[in-house]
Amino acid sequence: MTARDSVWMHELTWPEVEEYLGGDRVAIVPIGATEQHGPAGVLGVDALVAITLAEDAAQRSGVLVAPPIWFGDSAHHSAFPGTITLRTETLTALVADVCRSLARHGFDRIILINGHKGSNLPGLVTAVRGLHERELGGVMFAVADPLHLARSAAGEIKETNEHHCGELELSHVHYRFPGMVRMDKLTDAEVDFEDVFGGFVGNDLFGPAPDGVEIMWSGAEQRAFTPSGQFSSSLGVTEEKGRRYHDHIVGRLCELIDWMRGYDGPIGRKDRG
Amino acid sequence: MTARDSVWMHELTWPEVEEYLGGDRVAIVPIGATEQHGPAGVLGVDALVAITLAEDAAQRSGVLVAPPIWFGDSAHHSAFPGTITLRTETLTALVADVCRSLARHGFDRIILINGHKGSNLPGLVTAVRGLHERELGGVMFAVADPLHLARSAAGEIKETNEHHCGELELSHVHYRFPGMVRMDKLTDAEVDFEDVFGGFVGNDLFGPAPDGVEIMWSGAEQRAFTPSGQFSSSLGVTEEKGRRYHDHIVGRLCELIDWMRGYDGPIGRKDRG
Amino acid sequence: MTARDSVWMHELTWPEVEEYLGGDRVAIVPIGATEQHGPAGVLGVDALVAITLAEDAAQRSGVLVAPPIWFGDSAHHSAFPGTITLRTETLTALVADVCRSLARHGFDRIILINGHKGSNLPGLVTAVRGLHERELGGVMFAVADPLHLARSAAGEIKETNEHHCGELELSHVHYRFPGMVRMDKLTDAEVDFEDVFGGFVGNDLFGPAPDGVEIMWSGAEQRAFTPSGQFSSSLGVTEEKGRRYHDHIVGRLCELIDWMRGYDGPIGRKDRG
Amino acid sequence: MTARDSVWMHELTWPEVEEYLGGDRVAIVPIGATEQHGPAGVLGVDALVAITLAEDAAQRSGVLVAPPIWFGDSAHHSAFPGTITLRTETLTALVADVCRSLARHGFDRIILINGHKGSNLPGLVTAVRGLHERELGGVMFAVADPLHLARSAAGEIKETNEHHCGELELSHVHYRFPGMVRMDKLTDAEVDFEDVFGGFVGNDLFGPAPDGVEIMWSGAEQRAFTPSGQFSSSLGVTEEKGRRYHDHIVGRLCELIDWMRGYDGPIGRKDRG
Amino acid sequence: MTARDSVWMHELTWPEVEEYLGGDRVAIVPIGATEQHGPAGVLGVDALVAITLAEDAAQRSGVLVAPPIWFGDSAHHSAFPGTITLRTETLTALVADVCRSLARHGFDRIILINGHKGSNLPGLVTAVRGLHERELGGVMFAVADPLHLARSAAGEIKETNEHHCGELELSHVHYRFPGMVRMDKLTDAEVDFEDVFGGFVGNDLFGPAPDGVEIMWSGAEQRAFTPSGQFSSSLGVTEEKGRRYHDHIVGRLCELIDWMRGYDGPIGRKDRG
Amino acid sequence: MTARDSVWMHELTWPEVEEYLGGDRVAIVPIGATEQHGPAGVLGVDALVAITLAEDAAQRSGVLVAPPIWFGDSAHHSAFPGTITLRTETLTALVADVCRSLARHGFDRIILINGHKGSNLPGLVTAVRGLHERELGGVMFAVADPLHLARSAAGEIKETNEHHCGELELSHVHYRFPGMVRMDKLTDAEVDFEDVFGGFVGNDLFGPAPDGVEIMWSGAEQRAFTPSGQFSSSLGVTEEKGRRYHDHIVGRLCELIDWMRGYDGPIGRKDRG
């Protein structure tokens, strides 16, 4: 791979990054997790999701991507072998340091792409909200999560309830990283949401939510209520679903990049920051 | 007020709390904020919301409430006089210490009621998720937010978009704390969401959300894009709307308390914690 | 209650606070504790003390009060149900964040009123000493404790040794918050100071002190050496003692406010801060 | 010097300390400061005070002393050259680590001797109060300060008000460390307490205190209100005063050690800790 | 790629990792940096070094590798665009959390492979030294650095002094990742060590060292004394040198793995940990 | 001792330090440890090493020395009575605070002298590397360790392998502090490096190192593999060896001081810092 072919900063030299900064200021930071994804999904699913979304959006839009963060906030999966979790405080510190470094070089439109639906958000938001208020007023930050970027499309693509290790998540990885979903291990195992969470937690991340609350559960408890690690059926995994899901989110990310690039609103002004 | 009239721990003696713990184990912790709520709402709106929900649910269900936390994560409002904000890390530490204290006495069903829609959630979730995984496996934690508990009802009650200082929030406080909304200062001032956030952030907290992201903004930026502090119109404030909104949420909280009390599922078991 | 009747920031709108700041710069922060106060005193005694002193001094002097901090450093009471304690580090962080917020708005005379005799002082002093040296040189801070403000008067009012849950403390709360002292539970239970602390710790917080040291004790140990939680007799509680004690301290606080308002000495100058 | 002549752990080998622990369990930790002491006192005055009290009490009582901590909480003196200050948090962490180490070896009666009147106490108390509650319930901790140990004697010895760099403090060091007080630089310079602190702070650390509060001042402010660094006159320094002051405190420390050695009360029991 | 072809945990499912743990307990954690490597080396050089050493040693020895940490302690390079640095504290927390996660699953022989010569060591050692003493006594930790593993071989392979961006480092990456060294940008630019560091810092990381000290320099200073970022000449880069260097280190790592696997000495015993 | 005889800041008054700063800006900070040094060496060996090197270099060069830090990073020795260890984080914070204080007064050439070979370096480097990058760019920092300053001379002086409690270390202390090595307890006890560390850790700190790694060991493990605490033989201790070793290092330190004093290179410039 030559320099001009790569959107990854770690595959560029510093003069190549300097040249980019002469013309553009957007940086993407992909953040995933290394955690159990049931019998079929590899531990890196969430990181792979962030990596492929970042890479493809960056290639289409011509922006740069920082090296990936492979670890996230996965304590609730930590009773399954191979799960590696950061304390929320560590994740926050890590993301803040990466953003500080980028800002020092002049990147002032920073997009965090979270591949680990929901669970990373407290750590990520804490990091960039604090940075923006107290240190980096001149940098505009966006936190992007597939769950929120695919709202309008997920319902049309998926056939069943979608939750951890579900049909959409695994279709996505299967499409982009063939072999990273063991297609012979797909299963209809799922959590009994009523039994575990009453009616207070929804069983479809893209479906209508109940009048609900957040209930905390630990790694040990998770292994007790889903011995496979699966939260919703993965039987419906297909490459085609993955393609549609991926293309929708990448398209929306490109719109976000375009909007941030040309942004002239009240946020992230150098004169105020 | 005599002991038996009060659900507030700070209005009870220690033998009275000890007696309660002989029969029940549920505690509520109300967490608000002290932050600008536009020209009409007092700075304590979010704390008052948490306090009244906690108090009324506790009275109906016969459980106890810890003294209120009046401060939350309000940096984005901090350019308006009177706003008092905690760093997210401080909020997390504070909530964790309160929960540790309750757990030491045997409270093992703890419900955080958040009166500060959304913004406190990273701090609160970080606190209790970490506690439950690493220290207090035998305690069941729920984080309750009006935004999520009123999902099914808000649409029927409100007439306009609801956001910070909006119709529902102020009706709620007006109903429960007459005088705490200056009815002569209601206004239709609102944020131009398209200008500030493109199409990436929704303008109705109870409405359908766009394929969106989270955009961070600072206190100084907020004061620039909404000089009144108002995010959506408060013209529609009425006591009746407040009553319906309040009753719906309190009702749902009581269902939550009942469910947690009788919970026999895999979470918060003493033998595993 | 209307805006002009209230000294509490949380009962004011931001324009009302802004108006105040046009004329005055004093803020009071009341800090208490939620901890056992024997068979007769409610858990909130220390917070109620701070609240009532803050409120009455503010009303007389025409200054504003931040919402109360209900929690303090009470680990040594934590074996009694209902006690909620912060680690000293948490209390320090919390108070520092509140003061930073006030200072941002222009409050530059900040008085902490501590209702939790002695035990909170390390945390409070650490917070504002560090802030004043390193961040907020232009703000003048005072830490006010009833123990120190009533030195000259306590001896004339009380009839017995005064310590935790003693005659003066409970008279004070009984006078200002009728019902918050269970008058039928007053007791002459007290700690055997000689047995527990040799002659190295005094048994009267307002009396002459021995050539002594500080001895640390834990919550569990406290419950062992005072099963009731009482340190000195509460039999002498009367409304009249509470009134005299309260009025003396409020009077002295008003003198403090006047002095700080007109202060022209070397501390808290804007040009140096 | 041979092993048996020394009370200092750093002058003993590990088998010699092990032998001591076979018979006794008391350890002293001397904590001072390195801060300006006016034109006559060396920067190490507070550390020298702690060192000599620890050494002499240990020799008389036959116990061991940890190496000295030369630094304390001296930010308010930090505008004078040579002052070295720790943040309170650092002092707390340092003292806690030293105590943890001692406790690991079986020292279970630990006496902190503070040579830096008052200012170190928040840090020291925070350290050992937290340790005793949360980690080292089986260790008994005392925090000893000359200010409190000389209460009954100071009035008889000193001739003037005593404050920072005053007559007693410097007499003490002059007596024990000849040359460490520049006798030709004694001065009657002093702070104008009324001007700086109103009537709210006392001008004699051993005298009757006003109905007062604590006022924070910074290093820069201190240099403004006392250009010499002196708080009260040092003209009365004599070796004889130093001797009487020293002997009184050492005597009381020995009583403390005896009492702690034979203590059979409720604190620091192994079976509870 | 199928499961059995991969040594990377993120390319395995949790049951596949569980199966591995039935037979072996060794895990490798590769840690690099994202920092300038002169005009020819990409920013990811140090991470690529750690990745390829980990991967090849793992493949030969049949052990597993955690996902890579792409960021290290690179503040001294931070004035060059694209450098991303963690504070030492963040790196320490990150590595500790990764190791804690691995240990929870039963990995008890953990090898950190550092691709960022020297600079990461304080953070890495702090992390695992503390973990091993205080939390994970039953886990054996090794910190492996190419600088130390190639001591005996480097002299024979290289032709010039070796320092940051030197001949050996870039040959290594050129051999394993063709294209990641811009061969048309090699340069003989180098730091004038005598001018910058006197005779107190050596100019060859594999050469004899002077009677020296460590001198700290900042990112801004580095850019001043080496405008290209180069510390020693890279003109001698060849694939063959890279191959010899790589093979030597991988060979030694495999010996380390074998030794740790069969280790029966006093470190990392379960019965003591 | 009079002021002019002392290089120790704690033996000077603030005007005396101020006078020094009018002519010179160098400060030395000696950092040791309090840890077991076998049957013959006192616990303070490492601190005594730092103290004597600092004192003698300062006297010869005419610079000042801060009071000593008696504690370091000694967890691996902590199973032997009398060892007092700081967590690395505490050591880092402590050293940073001391350096901040010195820098405030205008000391801008700061030399840390480490008496605790190797083990303190992570903490010390973390402290001053971070300070120099983020806070004190105008201060030049050197970290000096006898191990590195005696490289060229040790081989000629010593007769056996040198490691913890070895011939050189104890000769050094014996020469400078007669009595602090119990000459009747010298021993040839040593660690079996092959058994404990395979061939991956060298058995002579001044000898050629293997292609090695760092292996962590705990305090408990150390006591298991060296019941005496000795790592290499101390039988060869003589005053003469100590004298040669000491004089060599002091000489080199004086060269360092001279070089730093006259330094005109790119590091620690006021205009950039």
Automatic annotation (TrEMBL), chains A, B, C, D, E, F:
**Key words, A-Z:** Hydrolase, Metal-binding, Zinc
Tell me which Gene Ontology terms the entry assigns under biological process: riboflavin biosynthetic process
Alphabetically, the GO molecular function entries are: creatininase activity; hydrolase activity, acting on carbon-nitrogen (but not peptide) bonds, in linear amides; metal ion binding
Q: Which family does it belong to?
A: Belongs to the creatininase superfamily.
Which InterPro entries does this entry report, sorted A to Z? Creatininase-like_sf, Creatininase/forma_Hydrolase
UniProt-listed Enzyme Commission number(s): 3.5.2.10
This protein is called: Creatinine amidohydrolase
On the tree of life, the source organism's domain of life is Bacteria
> Could you tell me which species this protein originates from?
Nocardioides soli
Required co-factors: Zn(2+)
Question: Where is the organism placed in the taxonomic lineage, from the top?
Answer: Bacteria, Bacillati, Actinomycetota, Actinomycetes, Propionibacteriales
Q: Which Gene3D superfamilies match?
A: Creatininase
